Amino acid sequence: MENYLDFSGKKAVVTGGRRGLGKAMVLALAERGASVAVISKSPDAGNLMEEIRKCGGKGFYLSADLAQPEDRKGIIGRAVECLNGIDILVNNAGLQFQETAETCTPEQWKLSQSVLLDAVFDLSRQAIPYLKKQKSGKIVNIASICAFREGGWNFSYGVMKAGVVGMTRCMANSLARYGIQVNAIAPGIIRTDLTASCFEKERYEEICRKYPAGRLGEPEEIAGAMLFLASGMSSFVNGQTLVVDGGFCGN
Ligand SMILES: NC(=O)c1ccc[n+]([C@@H]2O[C@H](COP(=O)([O-])OP(=O)(O)OC[C@H]3O[C@@H](n4cnc5c(N)ncnc54)[C@H](OP(=O)(O)O)[C@@H]3O)[C@@H](O)[C@H]2O)c1
């Protein structure tokens, strides 16, 4: 039987892979033999390349502000040059504002749209010709449960993540015939810099009461879902959004 968790020889691009969920996904891929190109905003990768090397993988770092069309231009081509190909694209980079439909500023709306939606579209479009040529490829978009159950204070984030869910379905429909699968993950609250305030003791206990699992998630639990969607295990799954939230949305 095929070892689905062997990613030897696979080439993956992960946006926002420098920390948080992205980093957990980068290391999960590298540990299983993939070469990984990380695209993030910071000018340098910190010690991430060293960590990738330690777990036996090969890593490359490309600094780009994905909010900027000029930074996005040709970025997948550059990653392909480093990796000598591309099999997997994980569109993960993200940010979040605390606002409502009434308080969201035009600047917040624009930045949310650029990073959370435009970059996913743009980078996927840049990857498609490579994946189409080899008649295989996996695009995994990181959406959010806010696409379905926005709590009232992450307005533009919820709108854009709902867009990611829609884009995933529509892109999958037209690319399936070329052997390309496009799926998404909708995480619940997971421990990263983005959600640090949710892990402060009192708030944590209050939020956990709404989670049937009785706890919030860890980045590795999203990496597991990504490995499934990026491997042959999910060969007939397309256009789907996998909710990974300890049961919150089903509650
Ligand atoms: N954590 C959660 O509970 C949760 C839940 C649902 C969905 N998500 C989604 O999961 C993804 C990762 O979130 P996270 O929690 O890991 O967040 P995080 O810890 O704040 O990390 C965000 C990553 O995105 C990168 N990034 C942000 N803006 C960028 C830009 N303009 N250009 C390039 N890179 C940019 C950052 O790059 P630098 O490191 O270079 O700054 C960082 O690596 C996001 O799409 C988020 O919406 C997270």
Descriptive overview:
With about 250 residues, the protein is of the alpha/beta class. It has one domain (about 10-245): NAD(P)-binding Rossmann-like Domain (Rossmann fold, 3-Layer(aba) Sandwich), CATH 3.40.50.720. It contains 9 helices and 7 strands. The protein has helices spanning about 20-30, 50-55, 70, 75-85, 105-135, 145-150, 155-175, 200-210, 220-230; strands at about 10-15, 35-40, 60-65, 90, 135-140, 180-185, 240-245. Helix 1 packs parallel to helix 2 (about 50-55), helix 1 crosses helix 9 and helix 5 (about 105-135) packs parallel to helix 7. The longest helix is centred in the middle third of the chain and has 29 residues, at about 105-135. It starts with 10 loop residues before the first strand and ends in a 7-residue tail after the last strand. The model has no long low-confidence stretch (mean pLDDT about 95). The protein binds NADP nicotinamide-adenine-dinucleotide phosphate. The site of NADP nicotinamide-adenine-dinucleotide phosphate has 27 residues, from helix 1. The site of NADP nicotinamide-adenine-dinucleotide phosphate (NAP) has 27 residues, from helix 1.
The CATH class label is Alpha Beta
Q: Nearest-angstrom radius of gyration?
A: 17 Å
Characterize the largest beta sheet: strand count, sense, and whether it forms a barrel: 7 strands, parallel
| CATH-derived topology | Rossmann fold
Which range does the strand content fall in? Answer: 15-25%
Bound molecules: NADP nicotinamide-adenine-dinucleotide phosphate
Mean pLDDT, all residues: 97
CATH-scheme architecture: 3-Layer(aba) Sandwich
Total helical segments = 9
What is the fourth-level CATH superfamily? Answer: NAD(P)-binding Rossmann-like Domain
For the record, give the distance between the C-alpha atoms at the N and C termini, rounded to a whole number: 37 Å
